[in-house]
Amino acid sequence: DLQNPHSPESNFKQNTYVGVCDCAFSMSNIYESAEATLGFISSPCLTKVELRVACRGISDRDALSKPDPCVVLKMQSHGQWFEVDRTEVIRSSSSPVFSKIFLVDYYFEEVQRLRFELHDISSGNNGLRDADFLGAMECTLGQIVSQRKLTKALLKQGNTAGKSSITVTAEELSGNDDYVELSFSARKLDDKDFFSKSDPFLEIFRINDDGTESLVHRTETVMNNLSPVWKSFKVSLNTLCSGDHDRELKCTVWDWDSNGKHDFIGEFHTTFKEMRVEQEGKQIQWECINPKYQMKKKNYRNSGVVILNHCKIIKMYSFLDYIMGGCQIQFTVAIDFTASNGDPRNSCSLHYIHPYQPNEYLKALVAVGEICQDYDSDKMFPAFGFGALIPPDFKVSHDFAVNFDEDNPECAGIQGVVEAYQNCLPKIQLYGPTNIAPIIQKVASSASEEMHTKEAMEYFILLILTDGVITDMADTREAIVHASHLPMSVIIVGVGNADFTDMQILDGDDGILRSPKGEPVLRDIVQFVPFKDFKHASPAALAKSVLAEVPNQVVDYYNAKGIKPKCMSDYESTRTFSP
């Protein structure tokens, strides 16, 4: 900037706040440290790691029943634990091997603290609210990666070690991110139950180079059926066969038993190369063999037949594939103007415009907006306010344009949003309540139009800055569930010192947010971050925490819809001819 005082960046910084207040100096500091991280959102992490989890020797909740275990993975960020993901619940098992695989980003230069919590989930409810805590293990991701396999005791409350232990196995992913979709069925399986038919499920194991087995997938159980059709599932080629199409796979069929002692029906061995034959339209099937019966019974043929109904390779694209293909990030800001923020003329107010220091609303806005604007070619950002009485008739509004131009609420760059915010404060009256569903619905309607194009052209990010717990929780949950079907993500930054624990419900009690009617979100699109956790950290740290999920959310949306990135030539031609 010093070498070229006329560069747009230096212009941008020098003009910030000029004529509004004298805090250009401290704002430019924020801009510079946000700028320093501009590369992070697109820089690939060092590597992705798959974590598999198994437990042993879990003590029973009571003498009559075995526990129904579930492991929750948490990661530490700024001294607080956040849930990353959780395994399925396995019924009646004291030594569960979970089929759920945790996929985590591994940064060599960071200490990434992990916590694995084991819970006994009461039947009929998969939430943690009524679950019994059975123990936890803390370690770093580096420890697991360096040892490949880490076994530690599970510590109960008070850090006392019981008899139970947890084993976490790590595997680095190679470059190929492609997935395969498989669906299996079976015919004439052996009947293992006296009073009804078998309840079969299928397990697929990958045979590793050292001869050990890794569980790749466990299907659901089909009750009382000797010719089950299992649901199709997706698995990465890395997980299935480490990208080696000739690697041996072992498939085992079991008869499920409620006491956890499942009966072995039979097994067969195959490779992904063999499965791919199905893609050419040839049906492929395997005899399911029980080796004991094979040795003992003279006329034994098999214990049933397993059929591969469907095998399809799904090409996975990356965040950069979509961005380079011309996908624009449409960034919208919504600011809380409710009375609980305090009178903006008072220096204690969260909306107070300090001559030398930006308030928390501005800090959060700039830190996140600076990064998003790099992915938006027109750099025009709609900015809305909610919870204020607005001119001319001073009625309460929950989605008014901060520049008071309802036909064109867009501001030029983050600087334009900052100026519109400051100009709007003296003209409105802070009021309430804190309703955010209307603004989510407003952005969702734009995202809905984009969805119908069936192209990866625009993805919407809504940044909501609020000082308190929202009052329209039911409507907000409904709006988020609807928005989870659209190309959009919602980031909520909690400003000030309110107790934001209720906001965590937007991440769901059992890991899944549901609408009041019980409909689950299609995908996780909400990220909630309390600003106070980052008060003494750099704007870069806030931006990184808030935006870390976005690339995966973009990729998950388009990949799930089967929408490919537009290639550059397509993109250029549509830009040239658009009016």
Automatic annotation (TrEMBL):
Task: Provide this UniProt record's keywords sorted from A to Z.
Answer: Calcium, Metal-binding, Repeat
What CDD domains does the database record attribute to this sequence?
A: C2A_Copine, C2B_Copine, vWA_copine_like
SMART domains, A to Z: C2, VWA
Q: Name one GO cellular component term.
A: plasma membrane
Question: GO molecular function, one example?
Answer: calcium-dependent phospholipid binding
**Gene3D superfamilies for this protein:** C2 domain
Domain annotation C2: ranges: 26-154, 160-287
Say if the entry is tagged with keyword Transferase: no
| Single GO BP term | cellular response to calcium ion
State the similarity comment. Belongs to the copine family.
Please state what the protein is called: C2 domain-containing protein
The organism is Astatotilapia calliptera
